[in-house]
């Protein structure tokens, strides 16, 4: 399952831990996603992974970038100058709102935020209202909508915004935005799309953003989101004159990243085998954050006492029992010095991790090109 280029690089790294990004793999994946979405606009949700090389690889395949903070906005402006940007996220500061002129779209989170935007003067800003629809999001891994959450607005909030915007002016209402749940398959996301689109039509707004949240399976890395079914479904829902836009993060970049490390110590404690690797969840917090075993490949670079055909728990160097990357995973053979390449570390991986805990060295970043 590990691409040849990643394997070759991982085996000859003289310093670990490191992140290895498979740029040709990302390029091919993004091209396939783009091709499956005829007539639907595609933005990449930068918070999944803001690495400039990933943004560069994605750029030819996406219509723009969705950012969730002033920091991400400045980053994308610096490394992808001129690329269309959608600026969302709860709790925008006045300083962040001041950065809005020039973005393609600003996603308004609340009537209070809109009031602060209207109170500013300056260049025009094109906005979408972020909806929090009361629709069921059963099966979702994370729910940002479908009930009381801090994201977006219910009907009352939307009505208040429409009143505030009534007079027209420099803040121009273009449509609605929703990002209601994550971890959903194509049929479930199409159900949500129908509900969001119906609300856009009810409000007479022809531009509708459906968010991200396409499912990624960490237990079955080969199982992929059905982009073809989703793209065809969206094409069928869209009426002439309407714009539909999606903004996936995880399902675009998760697969291209590998966290590569080596086994420092292999030990048996009270009957259970532990492989202690260089680094840990302070570089790759994803398995702890999501409560899964991070899938991995073993590359035989080691020597010494072998453990064979045993369930192995892979832990990092942190002095906490939470520093577990994978639990009781059967491995055919493992030795100290073997390289372990954790798959699916391209999204919500390094940037969500607590890098400074215990002051271990930071990983290096390498790119297969
Ligand atoms: C995080 C986020 C996304 C991307 O979600 P994924 O689950 O990574 O696809 C899209 N839109 C908004 C508003 C987000 O906050």
Automatic annotation (TrEMBL):
> What's an example Gene Ontology biological process for this entry?
lysine biosynthetic process via diaminopimelate
Q: Where N6-(pyridoxal phosphate)lysine occurs along the chain?
A: 47
- GO molecular function term, any single one: diaminopimelate decarboxylase activity
Return the SUPFAM superfamilies for the record: Alanine racemase C-terminal domain-like, PLP-binding barrel
Keyword set for this entry?
Lyase, Pyridoxal phosphate
Instruction: Enumerate the cofactors the protein uses.
Output: pyridoxal 5'-phosphate
Q: Which residues form the Orn/DAP/Arg decarboxylase 2 C-terminal domain?
A: 19-346
Instruction: Name the source's superkingdom.
Output: Bacteria
**Record-annotated active site:** 319 (proton donor)
- Location of the Orn/DAP/Arg decarboxylase 2 N-terminal domain: 28-254
Query: Is-annotated flag, keyword Lyase?
Result: yes
What Enzyme Commission number does this protein have? 4.1.1.20
InterPro entries reported in the protein's UniProt record: Ala_racemase/Decarboxylase_C (IPR009006), De-COase2_C (IPR022643), De-COase2_N (IPR022644), Orn/DAP/Arg_de-COase (IPR000183), PLP-binding_barrel (IPR029066)
Q: Which PANTHER family match?
A: DIAMINOPIMELATE DECARBOXYLASE (PTHR43727), GROUP IV DECARBOXYLASE (PTHR43727:SF2)
Q: Which family does it belong to?
A: Belongs to the Orn/Lys/Arg decarboxylase class-II family.
Instruction: List the protein's name.
Output: Diaminopimelate decarboxylase
């Amino acid at each position: 399952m590990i691409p040849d280029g990643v394997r070759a690089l991982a085996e000859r790294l003289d310093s670990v831990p490191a992140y290895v990004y498979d740029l040709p793999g990302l390029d091919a994946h993004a091209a396939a996603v783009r091709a499956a979405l005829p007539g639907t606009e595609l933005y990449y949700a930068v918070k999944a992974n803001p690495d400039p090389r990933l943004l560069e690889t994605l750029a030819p395949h996406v219509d723009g970038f969705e950012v969730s903070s002033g920091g991400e906005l400045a980053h994308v402006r610096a490394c992808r100058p001129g690329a269309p940007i959608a600026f969302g996220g709860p709790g925008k500061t006045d300083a962040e709102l001041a950065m809005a002129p020039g973005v393609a779209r600003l996603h308004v989170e609340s009537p209070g935020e809109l009031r602060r935007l209207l109170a500013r003067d300056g260049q025009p800003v094109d906005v979408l209202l972020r909806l929090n629809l009361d629709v069921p999001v059963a099966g979702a891994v994370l729910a940002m909508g479908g009930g009381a959450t801090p994201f977006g607005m219910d009907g009352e909030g939307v009505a208040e915004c429409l009143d505030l915007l009534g007079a027209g002016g420099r803040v121009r209402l273009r449509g609605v935005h929703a990002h209601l749940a994550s971890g959903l398959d194509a049929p479930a996301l199409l159900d949500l799309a129908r509900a969001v689109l119906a609300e856009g039509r009810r409000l007479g707004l022809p531009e509708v953003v459906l968010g991200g949240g396409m499912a990624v399976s960490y237990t079955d890395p080969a199982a992929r989101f059905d982009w073809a079914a989703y793209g065809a479904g969206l094409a069928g829902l869209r009426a002439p004159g309407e714009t539909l836009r999606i903004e996936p993060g995880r399902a675009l970049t998760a697969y291209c990243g590998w966290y590569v490390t080596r086994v420092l110590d292999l030990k048996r404690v009270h009957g259970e085998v532990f492989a202690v690797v260089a680094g840990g969840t302070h570089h790759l917090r994803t398995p702890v954050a999501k409560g899964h075993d991070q899938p991995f490949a073993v590359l035989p670079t080691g020597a010494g006492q072998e453990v064979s055909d045993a369930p192995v728990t892979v832990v990092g160097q942190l002095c906490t029992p939470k520093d577990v990357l994978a639990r009781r995973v059967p491995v055919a053979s493992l030795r100290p010095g073997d390289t372990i390449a954790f798959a699916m570390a391209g999204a919500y991986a390094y940037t969500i991790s607590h890098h400074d805990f215990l002051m271990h060295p930071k990983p290096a970043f390498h790119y297969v090109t």
